[in-house]
Design brief:
- With 383 residues, this protein is α/β, with parallel strands linked by helices.
- The chain folds into two domains: 249 residues, Aspartate Aminotransferase, domain 2 (3-Layer(aba) Sandwich); 126 residues, Aspartate Aminotransferase, domain 1.
- Helices cover 38% and strands 15% of the residues.
- The chain has 15 helices and twelve strands.
- α3 packs parallel to α10, α4 runs parallel beside α5 and α13 crosses α15.
- The longest helix has 19 residues.
- The chain is globular, with a radius of gyration of 21 Å.
Length: 383
């Protein structure tokens, strides 16, 4: 029986599929730094490797682990989440129509509004939490890609993945999803009909804030996937060998970290509901969240380690509260072992759909009582 079917995903991650280095029998894999490989005497490359840009042995294990966790047929690692995401769009042809959500990772939205449109893609931005809005935007025969993000950064709107996949496929399009926040611990989009899953592997997959990386996993290896792979090779959007090794190390504790963050995020969200200094708590695990029912159906084991607080008193009060934290770190990014707080509107700029009073919280693995106490004092000290 295939290892990916025999064992629980947590076991596959912890043992990194159980691979042992054949040369040394080491449990921890070596880092392959070589950029070039020996050609056989008859001028062939029977090892399958000629140069490290198209095929690096340091990629093989982390790619296999992530493909197994997502239930995909193949994974490609990239130099960053942006490199992975943009490769999907660059695999389209000028004139192709794309549907994307208004609320999404701001860096990709900015790239789509600028370079991708200049390059010739026709893009409609819609309410990603509304299946009806997605259906109204697709153009049968012209729409080639529906891109979604769930939960969507930084307001944590939830998209019905199965419904979006049905809409996309009915129109003759592919569905790709940014599943960075959910991770394969909580959601496996390919099993719900998605064609491609993207991860900013910098975040939860690595989990230690010391690697910038991205990844794509496909449901099938077709001509579109081959085009994406060629873009990675030809544009050199590859990960370094040491970074691939660190990413694999991080994925071995993925389930422990995500499960801990989810429990803590749920506790923090529930604590601040009704708090006099919190105008709103945005978290899919709360029953009054507009996407709670969908999230409960497609997320298993928790609702993620990300939440946002809208601070009573507006933008100035939110920025002031962030300035008063002692334990939380005022920094961008998410998914690390340390808890981070950030005033997102300041980062995203004037065209952001993010409310100006919003603080984005990435919950790490610290004791949740300490995190709550610190937020309490930061919110209340300005009274």
């Amino acid at each position: 029986m295939d290892e990916a079917k025999r064992h629980h995903p947590a076991t596959l991650a912890a043992q990194a599929l159980g691979w042992i280095d054949e040369a040394t029998k080491a449990v921890v894999p070596p880092v392959h730094f070589s950029t070039t490989f020996i050609r056989d005497p008859d001028n062939q490359y029977r090892s399958g490797r000629s140069y490290a840009r198209p095929k690096n042995p340091s990629f093989e294990q982390p790619e296999a682990v992530l493909a197994a966790l997502e239930g995909g047929t193949e994974c490609l690692l990239f130099a960053s989440g942006m490199a992975a995401a943009t490769a999907v769009f660059l695999a389209l042809a000028p004139g192709d129509h794309v549907v994307a959500p208004r609320v999404m990772y701001w860096g990709l939205r900015k790239w789509l509004q600028g370079y991708a449109r200049d390059w010739g893609l026709d893009i409609d931005f819609v309410d990603g939490a509304s299946s009806e809005a997605i259906a109204a935007a697709v153009r049968p025969g012209r729409t080639k890609l529906v891109w979604i993000e769930s939960p969507a950064n930084p307001t944590w709107l939830v998209t019905d993945i199965a419904a979006a996949a049905e809409i996309a496929h009915r129109a003759g399009a592919r569905l790709a999803i940014d599943s960075t926040v959910a991770t394969p611990v909580l959601t496996r989009p390919l099993s719900l009909g998605a064609d491609i899953v993207m991860h900013a592997a910098t975040k939860y997959l690595n989990g230690h804030s010391d690697v910038v990386a991205g990844a794509l996993v496909t449901a099938r290896q077709d001509s579109f996937w081959e085009r994406i792979a060629a873009i990675r090779t030809n544009q050199g959007a590859i990960l370094g060998s040491l970074e691939a090794w660190l990413l694999l190390r991080g994925m071995r504790t993925l389930f422990l970290r995500v499960e801990r963050s989810c429990r803590s995020a749920q506790r923090i969200a529930e604590h601040f509901v009704g708090h006099p200094r919190a105008a709103a708590v945005l978290y899919p695990g709360l029953p009054d969240h507009p996407g709670h029912a969908v999230a409960a159906r497609q997320m298993t084991g928790g609702f993620g380690g990300m939440l946002s607080l809208r601070v009573a008193g507006g933008e100035a009060a939110a920025i002031a509260a962030a300035a008063r934290v002692r334990l939380w770190k005022r920094a961008t990014s998410l998914g690390g072992v340390e808890s981070l707080v950030e005033h997102r509107a300041s980062v995203e700029g004037p065209d952001t759909p993010c409310p100006p009073d919003l603080l984005r919280l990435s919950v790490g693995i610290e004791d949740p009582a300490d995190l709550i106490d610190d937020l309490d004092q930061a919110l209340s000290s300005g009274n």
